[in-house]
Amino acid sequence: MSDESEAGMSIYLRTSIRLGPVRVGVSKAGIGISAGVPGLRVGTGPRGSYVRVGAGGVSYRATLGGHHRRRAPARGVASVPASVLPDPGQVVLSDVTGKRAEELQPATPSTLVAQLNAAARAHRLWPWVLLASVLLVAATPWILVVGLPLTLWVGWRDGIRRTVVVFYEVDGPVRTRFESMLGSFDVVRRAHSAWSTVARGDLQTTYQRKVNAGAGHLVRREVLRRGVDGSAHLKANIAVPSLQSAGRSVYFLPDRILVRDRNTYTDLDYGAVSVIPGATRFIEDGAVPPDAVQVDTTWQYVNKRGGPDRRFKNNRRLPVMRYGEVDLSTSHGFAVHWSFSAESAAHALAAGFAVMAGRPGSLAG
Known about the structure:
Elements: E1 4-7, E2 11-14, E3 16-19, E4 22-27, E5 30-37, E6 40-44, E7 58-62, E8 79-81, E9 94-95, H1 111-121, H2 126-137, H3 143-161, E10 164-170, H4 172-190, E11 194-202, H5 206-210, E12 217-223, E13 225-227, E14 234-236, E15 242-244, E16 249-252, E17 257-261, E18 264-268, E19 274-283, E20 293-299, E21 317-329, E22 335-340, H6 343-357
Parallel strand pairs: 8-12, 10-14
Antiparallel strand pairs: 1-2, 3-4, 4-5, 5-6, 7-10, 9-11, 11-12, 11-22, 13-15, 15-16, 16-17, 17-18, 19-21, 20-21, 21-22
C-alpha cells in the first residue's frame, strides 16, 4: 500500500506508484522497483539512477530508462459550430492552434521531456507476440500455453517502457501556489462542458451569414476532457491538472506546463505564457449545458431583419449562450483557445495561471 499524505485542496505526495503488478517507490537512497502478488513480492533498489531537477521548493526524481501571438476574437460576436453549414466548403476554416509541440523549443533543457518523448514513441510489442501465437496455434496447439503468458508479460513490459515515473517534492511558496492552482482547477472541473477551438473562419458574405444563424464566424471545436491524472505516459505522486482534447493536451506541473501534440512533448514556463480570460456569445446547435447562461435566441436561417427565413423548411430556433473562454499563447507561436459552459471556470483557470506565474495581485478563483 502506498504511503499517501493529504495536503491542501487536492495535492497529494505518494512515496510509491503502481504500474499494474509493479510498484515503484522512492526513498532517501533512491528509487526502487518491486513486483509480485499478495504473499510474494520481489524487487531491487535503489534501481538505476534518478534525476533531481528544480529549485525554490520544487524538485523531482525520475526513473531513467535504458534507452506570433493570436489575437483574441471580438467579444460579443456570435459563432456557431461548423455542423450548421449546409456545405462546409463554402467557408474556409483556418487552424488557430499555432505551432505544434515539435516546432517549439523546450523552456529549459529537460530530461523529463526527453524521457516522455522516448516513452511516447516506444512501439508496443505485445500485438506482434499475440499475432505470432495465433498464426502458430494451428500447427502447434500447445503454443497457447506459452503464447498467452508471453503476450501478457510483453504487454506489461510495454507499459513499463511507455511510462515515465516521477516523484515530485513540493515545498514552501511553490506548494502554496500549486495548491491554489488545484483549487482553481476544481472550478474548471465542475463546469458541465468544455471545448478546445481548433479552427475558425469568418463569414464573408451576406448569404453565408444568413444560412448560419446570422453568426460572424464559424468554429471547429473538440471536446475538452478535464482531470488530475496527468498524461498516459507520466505517472506522478501528485495531482496533475490536465486539459486534453483529440489534437492537443496540456498538463500543469508545479514547475512547468507540459504540452503534448500526438507523440511529441514539450514544456513551457508559466511566466512566458499570456492568458486572457473572457466571455463569448455562442449560437448553440447542440445540447445546451445546464450550467450555461442563455442570453438570446436566433434562427438557423435568418432574413435581413434577423427573423426566420420562410424559404427554408424545418428552420430551427437556436439558443444564444454565454460561455467563458480562455486564450493562452506565447511569443513563440503557441496558442490554445478553450471555452467553458460556466463563465466562472474561465476566470478561475486564468487566476490559477496568474498565481503559478507569480504575477502581482493574482488570486485563485
